[in-house]
Amino acid sequence: MAYLDGIKRVEDLDLDGKRVFVRVDFNVPLDNGVITDDFRIRQAIPTIQYIIRNGGLPVVASHLGRPKANPSPEFSLKPVAERLSELLPEREVIFAEDCIGDGVVEQSKRLEPGQILLLENLRFYEEEEGKPRGKFNSDEEKAAAKKALKESQKKFAESLAALADVYVNDAFGTCHRAHASMATMVPFFGENKGCGYLLEKEIKFLGNIVYDPEHPFVAVMGGAKVSDKIGVIESLIEKCDQICIGGAMAYTLLSAKGVDVASSRVEKEAMDIAKSILDKAANSKCELLLPVDHVVSTALDDTTPCETVEAFGAGQMGLDVGPKTRELYGNVIRKAKSVFWNGPMGVFENPRYADGTIAIAKAMTECAGTTVVGGGDSAAAIRQFGMDDKVTHVSTGGGASLELVEGKALPGVEALRING
Ligand code: AMP
Fold first, then answer.
1. pLDDT tens digit sequence for 344-362
2. Which of 41, 132, 186, 250 is most open to solvent, judged by the fewest CB atoms within 10 Å of its CB?
């Protein structure tokens, strides 16, 4: 597809005997050093295995969490190295205690066929993100620190590039960030750069559904804030036949329509945005569906009674879409030829308010068309319900998938384009 024009695939690269820098997204959730979900690690394995099978020596790099200092043991990739070893028992995973420096260069040069070098967290260096850390007394001071960091970011990128001969990006979840390992280091590799299988798959499914969908094309949007997703919703209004809205964002839109949503979570400062979305939809061919009933309570806890209503009573807040809405949205989804879903329909972390989100996931599995789940909470939800293998694609990237759907260029992808 056009989005991949000018980008080499890992299979187009000469890997034999070469050290291959593989930027992956191993930003996995950790609980006291234990990985609670290894989805992102498993997703990167086909690329790593292909590189090894074709004589390449993978130098694998990722960020993890938001460390504020170097080192930050709680954000070490060591547990990831252990998990990667378990997933690849026939390979030897060597963990580098740093991500740059002479010692790591030496380790990369000593790599033997079948071995994998996993670098320590890229974000131990503020140069990775290019955002200065620490406190500043004035805007001028901050601007000066940012400028200085821009220079040291180039050096950091060069040090990363010294670890390999070929560059492969398989970190879709980070492609919306122009970070050192995603963009700044890439030009050092000339034309020896390309995308891994996961990145290719993400772009293929997300790109196809947005730029060349089969109709009816339905989007399901949920989550907390309409202001976070305005660009995406506006872009989807131009492409979709129907958009089903749920989650707290539905209450901001209902409120903008003049509906009394009592104590539901409403973004008061986003009223103008909400009104412009409603206007845009009214003047388009896209039908914007809002919940017709709600599971409500007067407090978000496990004991306060909840009930289903069509009109809100005083003090009630909407915490999930009701059964009529589930039925309505489910029917729309089942009839679609393409579905894109992002964001939960309610406070799905609490089982009392998860039914709306479960109903959407189930309807996606019952749809015969192409069904794509954007990353973030909806991806976590569909996997939590054990339905992820019954949809066409579950994206590994939350922000990146939304930016792609919105039609924005992703810096991590653009850096891979030859002559681009
Ligand atoms: P987002 O990150 O924008 O996709 O939002 C996900 C969050 O929205 C989840 O943590 C949900 O608990 C929350 N959420 C969904 N529906 C509601 C609701 N009706 N009221 C409050 N929070 C909600």
1. 999 999 999 999 999 999 9
2. 132
